[in-house]
Amino acid sequence: MVDPIENKLREAIELFYFAYRAFTAGPDQLLEQQGLGRVHHRILYFVGRNPDLTVNALLEILAVSKQALNAPLRQLVERKLVAMRPDEQDRRFRRLRLTDAGRRLETRLTGTQMKHLAAVFTAAGDDAEAAWKSVMQAVPAKSRPRN
After folding, report:
1. What gap in Å lies between CA 106 and CA 48, rounded to an integer?
2. Which of 1, 63, 98, 103 is the most interior residue, by most CB within 10 Å?
3. What's the pLDDT score for residue 144?
4. d(CA 145, CA 147)
5. So what's the pLDDT on residue 143?
6. Residue 96 in 3-state DSSP?
7. What does the pLDDT read at residue 147?
8. 3.20.20.370, 1.10.1060.10, 1.10.10.10, 3.30.420.40: which CATH number matches 8-115?
């Protein structure tokens, strides 16, 4: 006998998986053309949303190790998509900011996702959008910044 609760949870997992796949498909194509991956998009996104973010703050947001961040961040700096400069008060800290080219790429990548969500939210309605946001906020996320 199939446990109805387990069945509902498995259905939710599948819906989450397929939604995530659809949500990342557009950016994945653009990233592949650039020889980049999702981690690069995440870096571009959060640096774009938080200009002059420190490397340590980015590590906390992404919930990754310095080792995991090092190579993709270095690639973005080498490609002149992210600018890194020392903090004015404490030169041990490095501040990150998107370059013009980085901002254009991040806008294209995230723009596809914004269009996708806008269409879904319009079709689903305000109540469904609010419920979705409530569910997403309830999912424990170490990488979600605390307000």
Report:
1. 7
2. 98
3. 52
4. 6
5. 44
6. strand
7. 38
8. 1.10.10.10
Using DSSP, state whether 85 is helix, strand or coil: strand
* Residues 6 or more apart whose Cβ sits within 8 Å of residue 60: 145
The CA radius of gyration of the chain, in Å to the nearest whole number, is 18
Give the Cα separation of 100 and 63 in Å (integer): 26
Predicted local confidence at residue 53, as pLDDT? 95
Q: CA geometry: angle at 87 spanning 62 and 82, to 5°? A: 50
Cα–Cα distance for residue pair 27/20, rounded to 1 Å: 12
DSSP codes joined into one string, 97-121: EE-HHHHHHHHHHHHHHHHHHHHHH
Counting beta carbons within 10 angstroms of the beta carbon of residue 44, is it exposed (0 to 12), middle (13 to 18) or buried (19 or more)?
buried
Chunked into runs of 10 residues, the chain (147 residues) has average pLDDT values of 89 96 96 97 98 95 94 98 91 94 98 96 96 89 49
Model confidence, pTM: 0.88
Domain boundaries, the chain: 8-115
What are 5's two structure tokens? 């609760």
* Pick from 87, 34, 42, 92: nearest CA to 63: 42
